[in-house]
Amino acid sequence: MGGQACVFYGAAEFSRDLDLLILVAPDNLERLRFALGELQAESIAVPPFEEGFLLAGHGVHFRCGRTDVTGLRIDVLGRLRGLGDFEELWLRRTTIEVAGETVELIGVADLVHSKKTQRDKDWPMIRRLVEQNYFENRLQPEKEHVMFWLRELRTPRLLMAIASDFPGPARQLAGFRPAVAAAISSHEQEVARCLESEEREERERDREYWQPLRKELEELRRRRRSPSVEG
């Protein structure tokens, strides 16, 4: 997931980091510890690499020291805001091959959702991801493609075109997404306004989600900085 997945999906983004979503289970964590050891990866921040923090939604951060990957940062997560558990996401994954190696990517719809954050850089990436999916599949779209575009397109004119070409699905989603209702009416300025409102709401949801997690991280940092007291 993350920037590397965006590259594989054709929405190019240069990334020095590797973001991994993992199944949080004791045997799987042990395998990952072994792999991180092979990469000479060390923890670089709080929280520690523990099951409870991963299940709570925290990311655990590592920096690699092995010669061929020196400086590579690896961020490990066990859950994502607003998405199902790992097993659900695994069923929706995309499998590709790179240089003879199998790479499992988070599904594009789930990747798009994971990018709905407070970070300014993520919103142009969402737009590129959905546009890329549209241009790759527009000649022979399946229903799931059309529904994905109607749910996630952030380009007013493209959203209006999809609503015009597929009026039935557009009407189904119009009650759930005001931008689609505006697209059906061909009101480009209203579509843009609705998209801006969507973004503000998602940024606020992300802020609310991370607020208690950030407080927990600050407490962990405070404990780490405080000198220990021996009896």
Estimated radius of gyration: 20 Å
Give me the count of strands.
6
What sequence of helices (H) and strands (E) makes up the elements? HEHEHEEHEEHHHHHHH
Let me know the largest β-sheet: 4 strands, mixed
- Biggest sheet strand order reads 1-4-3-2
Kindly report how far apart the N and C termini lie: 46 Å
Alpha-beta content class: alpha+beta
Global geometry:
globular
The number of distinct helices, counting runs of at least 4 residues, comes to 11
Flag low-confidence runs: none
Share of helical residues = 40-55%
When the domains are counted, the total is: 2
Q: Approximately how much beta-strand content do the residues carry?
A: 5-15%
Mean pLDDT: 92
How would you describe the overall organization of this protein?
This protein has a 4-stranded mixed beta sheet with strand order 1-4-3-2. Strands 5-6 form a two-stranded antiparallel sheet. The protein has 11 helices and 6 strands. The chain is globular, with a radius of gyration of 20 Å. Helix 8 packs across helix 9 and helix 8 packs across helix 11 (188-225). By secondary structure, the chain is of the alpha+beta class. The model has no long low-confidence stretch (mean pLDDT 92). A hairpin with a 2-residue loop joins strand 5 (94-98) and strand 6 (101-105). It has 2 domains: 3-107, no CATH class; 122-206, no CATH class.
